[in-house]
């Protein structure tokens, strides 16, 4: 069934890794049970900062999910054969990332047992409803595409013709998931940090740099840990995508800063002030934001200079920096800073609590587990065919 | 003219129907509930919290020592915070720190209603922005959408934190959002909202803006009033005389 038999045979190292992930998931589950019985009061969230780490992770991971399009599009639309080996990796990464997104939204809900109300009372005017639709659809599309193409590969036949239109549909669909996720924020009156038309393009740019950066790191890890080689050229092409997307992302952030700093409208300025310097002595997020800036600034020359990019060791460092920089910006700061100062000018600090961190790590571990198992299946199929 | 028994029944029957019909029509004409807050009157006793107490007691609003978990339906905010865009550095001594009563604005174009994914919050014909605590999934999108900070979330079980229990009004469970409902339950009984009734200085005036002769309509017509953040297009229905 679904080639899962490939996932239950593996080396000692494979099983130890799965065990470690299971332990982290178990701890996260315990923390979640505590949150489920006590309420979201176990987190660091408050009246003023009502979304935090969970929703920020969700936002960041939608980007990782959407980035699969960066391998799918060249391969299926432009017949770029170099990506033949890694397209399936991108699709499985997308499936794992969307699942994490859904889990992060779920653990953020005050009444998780009522989650079906989203379907029982569909509300067309709510962007959250559309986000639910687009994420669910994307998960389904990628699951079908990955399984069908992998199954064909296993049988040594060409994929069935009907899958092609589905693959083509998945391309604009990937763009839609991150656009709609940006609309969650950019359509709110009174939250000036997010009320910007460039939020969706910026989300896409950061997605198309952080996602392929992660994929490069995964490819390098796969090459080291297994017999499978994704190919130097594929990795180099991905690196080029990361480079362009990262440049565009930094450019977009610059646009935001210019508009806020030059117009000097206090409502727009204050959020950036909080982000970079803190307000009223509250500076928890300042190191994260500057960390993001420094990592981005160092990663750019490493990516742009061809000699550095072509050196896979340096490329790995640069990709790690890109990933961490964007995680810190989008997976921590952007969501939280939108709430500070509050619409009433209150500056409320926020730091995640221990249970909150354990739940977050647990969800990440679920994602890592999914990626491990999926990649194991995909690579085993490749090995048995070859 | 001779009145037959049948004719008498017809006439009286039709008259009764017509009377009832007029009543029904009058009731069906959309009302537009609104409030005028006379800040001058409200400031007479700056330590007064009678309206807040009356509201929170009537609606089983819990009280928390932990500020992060605070739940409020109506509260006092410093002028510079309630009206962030309408202050200057010179208003400091006279007005900036003065307390202003704030509550849900029952916006005519409410962003919270627009974003709710389950229609757990919705706007009634008469303008009340309502909350269904049994449908709310606790996603807090409405909290992010409200530009007035008028929505509170139950971070923990609120029931152990009720100073007194009003058995005539529901309590809430953890994980749902709540806010002022303009005393929908009192309006249904023909009573004014609890805060309006509790105010000793008659600083809060409640009524139907759609009615030409209502007190709120007259006040908004005669006096200069301001609203919180009207530039956002939410059309708040709480008017302030400052």
Description:
The complex is a heterodimer of chains A (386) and B (242). Chain A is mainly α and 386 residues long. Chain A is 73% helix and 0% strand. In chain A, α2 (53-66) packs antiparallel against α7. With 242 residues, chain B is α+β, with helices and mostly antiparallel strands. In chain B, β4 and β5 (129-131) form a beta hairpin. The longest helix of chain B is centred in the first third of the chain and has 24 residues, at 5-28. The chains are: A mainly alpha (386), B alpha+beta (242). Chains A and B meet through α5 and α6 of A and α4, α6, α7 and β6 of B.
Summarize the model shown.
The complex is a heterodimer of chains A (386) and B (242). Chain A is mainly alpha-helical and 386 residues long. Chain A is built from 14 helices and no strands.
Overall shape of chain B: globular
Kindly name the structural category of chain B.
alpha+beta
Can you summarize the main beta sheet of chain B?
A: 4 strands, mixed
CA-atom Rg of chain A in angstroms: 21 Å
What letter string, H or E per element, gives the SSE order of chain B?
Answer: HEHHEHHEHEEHEEHHEHEE
Q: Which architecture of chain B per CATH?
A: 2-Layer Sandwich
Oligomer: heterodimer
SS-derived structural category of chain A: mainly alpha
- The CATH class label of chain B is Alpha Beta
Average residue pLDDT of chain B: 92
Integer tally of domains of chain A: 2
Q: DSSP strand (E) fraction of chain B?
A: 15-25%
Give the termini separation of chain B: 65 Å
CATH class type of the largest domain in chain A: Mainly Alpha
Number of domains of chain B: 1
**Helical amount among residues of chain B, as a percent range?**
25-40%
Number of helices of chain A: 14
CATH topology name of chain B, in short, is Alpha-Beta Plaits
Low-confidence stretches of chain B: none
Cα radius of gyration of chain B in angstroms: 21 Å
Low-confidence stretches of chain A: none
